[in-house]
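Reviewer 2 asked us to include a model.

Predict the structure of this chain.
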Amino acid sequence: MGHAYQAVQWNRQKRRYDLALLGGVVLYLGAFVGVTSALQPEATAETLLIRGLGTAAFLLLHVVLAIGPLARLDRRWLPLLYNRRHLGVTMCALALLHGGFSLVQFHAFGDVNPLVSLLSSNTRFDSVADFPFQPLGAAALVILVLMAATSHDFWLANLTAPVWKALHMLVYVAYALIALHVALGVLQAETSPVLWGAVAAGALALGTLHLLAARKDAADDTRATPAAAPGPWIDACAVSEIREGRAKVIVAGGERVAIFRHGGRLSALSGVCQHQNGPLGEGRVVDGLVVCPWHGYQYRPQCGSSPAPFHERVPTFRLQVEAGRVLLDPRPVPLGTELAPVATEEAAP
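Predicted model (structure tokens):
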């Protein structure tokens, strides 16, 4: 979204990003084919292309999965998060080309349908060294294509955010299938430990990043949980802790709530964006609207509703200010309910 309530389409920044991405892919494939052909002159052009496309897709998948935790650990990674969808679709296209060329190369010149041959040519499920790794890659490809096909916000709106999010969490299943596909394929074709080490290092790096991001989020939530108080109101924070145009995020009832200060007044909204569960509480107020830092989705602080023609809504909460302290009712009001912003003591008459 943009501040003029327009959906952001292709812009100059996105075009430059995509050109850089395309150029990087072309350079990688050229370097891979050149180096590999020098080291393995017996390899055919088809084999080099299949391997180049496969490794490029696998590397991009690591980048895609690393962006999320990196953005949680350091906000300077947010520009990559903004364009992560482009990376994912590019990765899927490379994987699809890899799978298509492999299907033709290894299964298209017999008397059996290539797809049937893919699933039935190797049934050594009792052997690690000879395990049928190709169906694992095919299963991962189905997931990646499904995710790429539903990456547009049209599907996010029609599937609803929870269903869309659950569907796209299958990327971790796809990653596990691809890691097994690569590892078992290498086991059957290569003796060098370098490729095994590279696969293991990639998995270890991703696991470490996700654990560090989860640890940081858990620590932030612990610090943001106010002490219990009698009655329905929670002593959330001091008014002075909230910067103008920004929010103080607390955890109330197990949910993140963002208390924004705008124009000397306070409003409380859910700290989670309805678009892709982004950290709305880390956003800022621009032109009177709360803007999510991930993809720019906007919400009116008074009611939690996006400006027309958009329909996203987040829960809002009642506030009070007493003796310089902000009190929050952790029970959300019905979606779309207008709540007048609460004046800070400094702004109160």
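The longest helix spans residues 193-223. Confidence is low (pLDDT under 50) at residues 1-6. We have added this to the supplementary material.
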